Amino acid sequence: MPFVTPKSQQRAYDVIVVGSGAAGGQTAYTLCMEGARVLMLEAGRRYRPETETPMFQTPDLAPLGGEGTPQKPFGFYDATVDGGWQVPGEPYVRATEDHGGRFDWWRARMLGGRTNHWGRISLRNGPYDFKPKSRDGLGFDWPIGYEDLAPYYDKVELLIGVYGTSEGLENTPNSPAGCLLPPPKPIVSDYAIARSARGLGIPTIPGHRAVLTRALDHRSNPGRIHPGNTRAQEVLAAAMQTRAPCLWATPCGRGCSIRANYQSTTVHLPPALATGKLDITTDAMVYEVTLGPDGKASGVSFVDRRSGRHEHANARVVVLAASACESARILLNSKSSRFPDGLANSSGKVGRYIMDTVGSDVSGQVPLLESLPPLNEDAADGHQLYTPWWLYKEQLAGKLGFARGYHIEFGGGKRMPGPGTGAGLEWLTGGNYGAKFKQDVRRYYGSFVGFSGRGEMIPNDNSYCEIDPGGVKDKWGIPVLRFHWKWSEHETRQAAHMQRTFGEIIEAMGGKPEKIETDGAKAIAPGGLIIHEVGGTIMGADPKVSVTNQWCQTWDVPNLFVTDGAVFPSNADKNPTLTIMAVAWRASDHILASLRRKEL
Amino acid sequence: MDRRTSIKWMLAASAAWPAWRGAAGQPRHGRALLRPPATPGYGTDPDLVTPHKRGEFWPLTLSAAQRRLATVLSDLIIPADEHSPSASAVGVVEFIDEWVSAPYPRQQRDRPVVLDGFTWLDAEGGRRGGKGFAELDVATQTAICDSICSATRAAPDRREAARFFALYRDLTAGAFYSSPEGRKDLGYIGNVPLTSFEGAPPELLKKLKLT
What we know:
The complex is a heterodimer. Chain A is α/β, with parallel strands linked by helices. Chain A contains 16 helices and 23 strands. Chain A has helices spanning 22-33, 49-52, 127-130, 132-136, 146-160, 188-199, 221-225, 230-240, 264-274, 324-332, 392-396, 426-429, 435-444, 489-508, 520-523, 577-596; strands at 15-18, 38-41, 83-84, 93-94, 107-108, 162-163, 180-181, 205-206, 278-281, 284-291, 297-304, 310-314, 317-320, 352-355, 358-365, 385-387, 406-412, 448-455, 464-467, 481-484, 512-513, 534-536, 560-562. Chain B is an all-alpha fold. Chain B has a domain at 53-190. Chain B has eight helices and no strands. Chain B has helices spanning 3-16, 64-77, 92-100, 105-129, 138-148, 159-178, 180-185, 202-207. The model of chain B is unreliable at 1-32 (pLDDT under 50). Classes of the chains: A alpha/beta, B mainly alpha.
């Protein structure tokens, strides 16, 4: 009985996993495939991508042409349900509304969490990214290195399916043979961008995204992922065969009914459920980890969102994978005489060092790309090519004025027209209308290119969350978070560098950037907008200044783990999801070994 | 535009031609319509796979006179040509009605801009031709649009009207090119399942000197 209500939950679970996204999905998958009995608690509703995904629906069939609203921030067809930067009945507080000091918190209350809609960009952290402090003296080192995580990156890529290539560039790791799927072929604008970037000394290489450009190898991958475990291999081989390769249409952010891209709901949860070891309770809003008299976590308390009743579940081990800030919130709300400031918070570091990604965008128009013949450029929904950070040496030599790098996500092409098509063209058309306007829209359609910088933020003492001292509570009476945020000049200068660089590339293409913002404080997207927030229960080697050890195990409570982005002590420019999964897998292996040794 | 600016602009428009009134003696696009009815919107968990009709989630609010004006203006911006029909023929007016009637912040900001713009057009039509904008001859309609179609070239007392025109042109274009006819006009051939993706055609890359 895989989907269970609070009443039908069994009594004896080995592990409770709070959350069902990249971290929760990976944790439950790893544990169940190796025989542990797991109860997963998800705050949102059950979600079925196979029947709920709008695969080919066009904008004219959606209200407002599908444009984003506060109820569907990434557009009507975005996979996210019951989520966004504001969730009704679940407020949070910002210490300030200023552009430079505000933090907006994205949540997705649904099975699979934000893995249903994410961009699928799947980059490995490189060796430098685990030892940033050793390299430049700023922030924190991880208690592990690339070599500790590399085998888990391999397994995640083999499991979820990631396209890309190994190019041997600095701090941009190669994957072993067979781990990556072939990348999609570039479109016209990719060639144009690559040529101009090359002229400026900026490399472009195939992107890495969790999309099946061909079917996964269900004969060989399961053996590499679960050596010696024939039952797990059988379950996984069967699950892999339910996933079809990409059909080169319809945006990945809507989810994928044919399971061609990675969502926890289509990749992690089906095989975990097939083991018979996983029970899932949805609409279960966990708010507290309960502490037993022995100083160990005894279970969790949650609100059944449908009945409003408060419930409790027990297990030998509790894993928080509720998303970085939600996991921190649960700990901070788990107060006891032993932990008056929140559970596992003897260091005072729970909620501290929240990081997002530095984001800044530039778009431009390129005459070379005007009036091209009809082309199908849907590809695998973009990111055929990207630019990894390329100025490591200049940066280390102190020539850039900021300490950490960024990668460039870029795109163009004849994407599906929508409510933005033909809008805002006055800077090119002089404001015409009528027959000439129609000709101009035809001429300019497909001639725009866009560049998004995604860069590393260094953790600081002024970016954190805490339980709101003003006493604001959500609709179930659970105290909410208050966010504090501050960028340093390392981030704002980096954003200004992005703007200049993107302007140079567009101009080298013979194009015209729409607007270049040279003031980095204005160019940088507010905190939380890129939705890469990590930190809050950082891992470390010293219990005095970190919340967990290298196994995501809290220093204070041995059977309590945090396996989501909260444990990141740094936030490399690489998008965090692949690393979240690799870290969760490694932590889960440790939990399994400890359970077998009866240490937990 | 905030409410205060909007009222100032309204007064300026009526001062320009205070005598003009609709058939029932009421202002054609009155203040009572400036705020749409309060509705909850489509919620955070709407059905994504079933096609939706305009007006399904919140009532459409444009009056018959406003829709008539919207039809004329949309078709001046996107007329029929040898490639595709006019804007109103593919449902643009219904889209704009849905847009200005929607309960969300962006649309509620756009609503007074559009409705005040309609009022200004009628006032200007009355000043120039003694008729509402929709009833004017095409030459006069075009002359009015020419005076507000560029935000940078518009006279200072027409800046607000030019902002309206820019917004209305964006809405018209967005709605038109979202439609099947608009997609076809642009030669969009995606959104179909393929067994393989071949990327950029080599002969095109050669022509563009990108190889």
